[in-house]
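Re: the 300-residue chain
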Amino acid sequence: MEWQQLEYFATVAKLEHMTRAADVLAISQPALSRSISKLEEELGVPLFDRQGRSIMLNRYGELFLYRVQRMRKEYEKAVLELQELNNPELGDVSLGFLHTLGTSIVPDLIRAFRQQHPHIRFHFTQNYSHSQLKQLLAGELDLCLLAAIDTEPPVCWKELWRDELYIMVPIDHHLANRKSITMKELEHENFVLMKKGYALRRTADRLLNAAGIKPKITYEGDEVSTVAGFVGAGLGVSLLPDDEDLNPNKVVKIHVEDMVCERIIGMAWIENRYLPPSARQFQQFVLDYYEKMGPSRERD
């Protein structure tokens, strides 16, 4: 059964005349008759009662016409939806990003983008990097903002910016008056870190391991603000990016002087996969935005 057969059937049902229907459809009357006969044969029931030159829907035809009309409406609706999605100013963007980017970075980025493209809709997912990559490969996400990862085709990843990571200590900590310290000075400290699985936790583990430190972890959190809150309460120190939610009356940030402590954030997408114009537009906006800013930056 072909869509064209359904169009032919609906036209004949409306006009109840084979010759006039053939004229409207711009095909020969015999060709139209053969198409209707083939459709009836495939369905296993007659759709019309024929009396001489007149042709009228029977009860099977009426039931089938009702379903065909609903199918045509759904088809027309789908066409309109696809046209809307393909409109660079009206489409959707499915964006995944790390939990730690949700406080200000992503909201600020979306706000700047929507000043130029106010009607584009976003669908957000916050998750671990590996979970987002699975969603990206499955086609559930258009783009992801992730920490530096080892990628293989078809995943593409491009660096956008770098955040310095600081040692965060309580304001009454014995190191709180220092501008910089070595990582080794933290050897006997208690640590508050992000939970396993988070990109920021993997980075912290790597840096501490490089410094020969096996941290005593007292608490683990899901959010930077939670970890910083535990630090401020005097329950340990941490390795975190600067964040506007950090309370300067409770937490002090200290530069690490003996090694480069940073996280690298970039954007991932699938090579050669179709991206709707709205997603392509957002992708280019992000690339241009951070190219102007430069790869290394320190948030105020």
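The radius of gyration is 31 Å.
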